[in-house]
Amino acid sequence: MNRILARTALILLAAIIGLYLLLPVLVVVPMSLSSSSFLTFPPKELSLRWYQQLLDDPSWGRSAFASLKVALLSATVSVILGTLAALALVRGRFPFRNAVTAVLLAPLIVPYVIVGLAVYIAFLNLGLTETTLGFVLVHTCLGVPYVMINVSTGLVSVDRRLEMASMNLGAGPVSTFFRITLPLILPSVLAGALFAFITSWDEVVTAIFLSGPDMTTMPVKMWSGIRVQVDPAVAAVSSLSLLVIISTFLLMGAVKMIRKMIDRRASLTMNEGI
Amino acid sequence: MSVAAGTRAALRQPAPPSFASKIKNFLRIDGWGALVLPLLVFLILVFILPLFVMLQKSFTDPTFGWQNYTAIFAQSVYVKVLGNTFLTAAIVTAVTLLLAFPYAYLMTLATPKWRTVMLVLVLVPFWTSILVRSFALVLLLRDTGVLNSLAQDAGLIAEPVTIIRTMSGVVIGMVQVALPFAVLPIYATMRTIDRRLLQAAEGLGDRPSGAFLRIFVPLSLPGVAAAILLTFVQALGYYITPALLGGPKNTMIGELIVQQVSTVLRFGFAAALATMLLVTTFLLIGLASKYFDLQKHLMGQS
Amino acid sequence: MTKSQETQYESSGAPIRISGISKTYKELTVLDSVDLDIRGGEFLTLLGASGSGKSTLLNILAGFVKPSGGTIEVDGVDVSRLPPHKRGLGMVFQHYALFPHMSVAENVAYPLKRLGVPKAEIIRRVGEALDMVDLGRMANRKPTEISGGQQQRVALARAIVFRPRVLLMDEPLGALDKMLREQLQLEIRKLHKDIGITFVFVTHDQDEALTMSDRIALLKDGQIVQLGTPEELYNAPSCRYAAEFVGVSNIFQGSIKNSAFIDGQHAREFKLPLGHAKEGTGLMIRPEHMRVSPAGQITNTIHDQIGATVEDCIYLGSSRTVQARTDAGALLIARTEVPRSPDGIHAGAQIQMHWEAADARVLA
Ligand SMILES: Nc1ncnc2c1ncn2[C@@H]1O[C@H](COP(=O)(O)OP(=O)(O)OP(=O)(O)O)[C@@H](O)[C@H]1O
Ligand SMILES: [Mg+2]
């Protein structure tokens, strides 16, 4: 009896926590459809007014483009550097292993405010603030540990004998990497790329330091839109941003399902053959 | 017979290596190992070097010396910010733990389907920007916000309850951000606990609640410790959430750093604050990594 | 296999000369200056207990492990410094190592593509190789979609499709069940006859080694303790280890004095076979040469004999195994054909075990 009571309380608590986790994510969508400039809830009447405003104001488009450019570039650089480092971590031998690993993982631990201030001070003299290059350099630091972690996990499960077999069959080390190893760790590489992309796309703290009239990423523009008073257009941007992320997850789920379906068909044909 | 043979083979030792060859062996780097160099050089140049530039700035801007550090403790405003930072981080950590522990525990009890749902719930905010979530909390919690107007319409309250720009607002916002980082390590540890131990304890005459407290809770402590550390260290450095949901009285160190740079251009002072935060972070991490494998928890985060 | 295919794959096997190959890991000596001449076209098996260094030696041949010393010559050319992909030796791995993201046909085509063979010829040769291992209709399956035995055959096809002059195999049958293993043993043996290249085969299974090999190199602690045909290994083991590792044996410990073997344990003297060695520490009699008679019954007086008590008597259909213990505590085993087994042999019975001196072997 006591146990049932405890369970019920537990489930109730979990439900409240679940709501607490989810509600802030979902509430922006209906609010962005409100026609009132005070973003009332529930919206008195629905309108796409704030979405229209996004289209009308070219600075939103500019910052979205800047963000996209930075996120794509830094995800690309992260994938290359992170995959190479993962290969070294899993396969290689190098001195000061613990210290090196600590440096590679440090961006996960150092508060972004500190990173922002440090690179701002350093970049100011180099003229790298408010430049795509500056943003890409910093966001690569923040995204690259995720690539490294994902790819390392993937690499550990790759059977070394496959690479040995490839070399025995006449492929050199580089050819073996691209034909055997890379295809096998591709899912991990892609997951790492996605992590790095989203990290950059959402990143606001270091971006606040690096942004200015010449270049402002979208999160920074959203930030200035809500810092002082609430700009309803931010609700529209947030909803769009959510849409992108949710559809990414749905897409990944769909890919997984399709693969499962193919696998199942394959096993059916196998049984026919035997 | 092959066992004995193996030890005999092991006894045939080559001559002990010289000191120089030992050093050479230690410094050896192979073809795979060399692949760490591009990222290492990149991070040293783009990440580590700026941190040192910042450190140097804290001692040289505007003049050489400790004055930026003494300035922090000379004025009660700044000392208050430091105190508030630690207080807020501690409260956030405590609340997060209180929520994360039962949530993770329920995850271990749930059916696979519900477990996935609970996991997704934890991960969705993980992947939506802190900015969007903090903004949404403002919309929900402000005086004219969703919760207040719903409660007023339902007649539960007469006047709106002020949450935004108070400590509760900051805590509500930061706990929401911190929850995933606490739930995941706790769940990862709880999952490995053998449930038969609880049955065994009950079989030996302990009450279910006693078995839970004496067996399950102690076994889950490594995950809890990791969660406390991650949450607390992260909370020290938060900027966005306290800036949006807190008032002037709730200023934390992150906000102070940004203020000092953007409004009064006191680079050296901001650098000193940042250095203090950085050193605190590293000390806490270093201390904790003595007690458990932090690398594993960081690596396991994905 | 058809005649035309046979000529397709016919090539002469390359001889391999292994000289002074050593390998040490930190403190551990895994191979201790191994010398071995492998003849072109022969089926040579590296046999040894787990950890004896078989895989290490094979991996040194293939180029995956750098030896600490010594050289490898294939067909008179020193390949010690060549990377694996330039050695042109085929290899079948433990657990096959088929590329999971490629179909069976793509797996087999892989080495041909690396060699830049024209596309039409790749298709033809892949087809041939798959037909050879009877897997033509599985060409488009993925490795996970075929059985273990079929995977094994694909690995074989992939290893020979580029016509290497040497094929290395590391316990290729280890993961298969007994029936399948025996079938594939015969198939691999036949493949060896058909394509005529040098096979170097690693196993820790003595039966497998005896069935398949032209010659066996027996490894112990990183050294070759005996090299010879299966018959030589079985009939004339060089040492106690070889006698115990290959087949079952009864061994008396002692020394040779005045052209007789002195068994210290039983305080007995046994006759020696003609042409025996001057030195030795053991005398071995295989179970099939060991006869049994009930105690007291007069046996052939020329035979050496020793009294023992039967512990167990195992009926195996075509034969019977008798386990008996001497008064000094040594366990002896005799295998007798069932009809010849005399009455009065049962657990607890006192018996005489006896043998012809010509069937005994002196162990170094
Ligand atoms: N990379 C390595 N580092 C250290 N020791 C090793 C390494 N590879 C092999 N060894 C050791 O070398 C010895 C021989 O190993 P090897 O794999 O050659 O044995 P094997 O005869 O193939 O045994 P098995 O029948 O179990 O496959 C073993 O004691 C093993 O532990
Ligand atoms: Mg082996």
From TrEMBL, chain A:
Record-stated family: Belongs to the binding-protein-dependent transport system permease family.
One cellular component term from this protein's GO annotations in UniProt: plasma membrane
Pfam families found in the cross-reference section: BPD_transp_1
PANTHER family: INNER MEMBRANE ABC TRANSPORTER PERMEASE PROTEIN YDCV (PTHR43357:SF4)
InterPro entries in UniProt: MetI-like, MetI-like_sf
Keywords: Cell inner membrane, Cell membrane, Membrane, Transmembrane, Transmembrane helix, Transport
Location, primary (coarse class): membrane
Membrane topology classification: Multi-pass membrane protein
Location within or outside the cell: Cell inner membrane; Cell membrane
One GO BP annotation of this record: transmembrane transport
Top-rank taxon: Bacteria
Protein's recorded name: ABC transporter permease
Record-annotated membrane-spanning stretches: 64-90, 102-123, 135-156, 177-198, 233-255
Automatic annotation (TrEMBL), chain B:
Membrane topology, record value: Multi-pass membrane protein
UniProt keyword list: Cell membrane, Membrane, Transmembrane, Transmembrane helix, Transport
Keyword match Calcium: no
Transmembrane region(s): 32-55, 86-106, 118-141, 170-190, 211-240, 267-289
PROSITE patterns xrefs: ABC_TM1
Gene Ontology cellular-component annotations: plasma membrane
Main location: membrane
UniProt record, GO biological process: transmembrane transport
UniProt-recorded name of the protein: ABC transporter permease
Organism of derivation: Arthrobacter psychrochitiniphilus
From TrEMBL, chain C:
Keywords attached to this entry: ATP-binding, Cell membrane, Membrane, Nucleotide-binding, Translocase, Transport
Signal peptide residue numbers: none
Keyword Cell membrane carried by entry: yes
E.C. number: 7.6.2.11
Domain of life assignment: Bacteria
UniProt xrefs under PROSITE patterns: ABC_TRANSPORTER_1 (PS00211), ABC_TRANSPORTER_2 (PS50893)
Any one GO molecular-function label of the UniProt entry: ATP binding
GO cellular component: ATP-binding cassette (ABC) transporter complex
InterPro entries for this protein: AAA+_ATPase, ABC_SmlMolc_Importer, ABC_transporter-like_ATP-bd, ABC_transporter-like_CS, Mo/tungstate-bd_C_term_dom, P-loop_NTPase, PotA-like, Transp-assoc_OB_typ2
SMART domains, sorted: AAA
A Pfam short name: ABC_tran
Gene3D superfamilies membership: P-loop containing nucleotide triphosphate hydrolases
Reactions catalysed according to its record: ATP + H2O + polyamine-[polyamine-binding protein]Side 1 = ADP + phosphate + polyamineSide 2 + [polyamine-binding protein]Side 1
Protein function: Part of the ABC transporter complex PotABCD involved in spermidine/putrescine import. Responsible for energy coupling to the transport system.
Subunit structure: The complex is composed of two ATP-binding proteins (PotA), two transmembrane proteins (PotB and PotC) and a solute-binding protein (PotD).
Family: Belongs to the ABC transporter superfamily. Spermidine/putrescine importer (TC 3.A.1.11.1) family.
Full protein name: Spermidine/putrescine import ATP-binding protein PotA
The encoding gene: potA
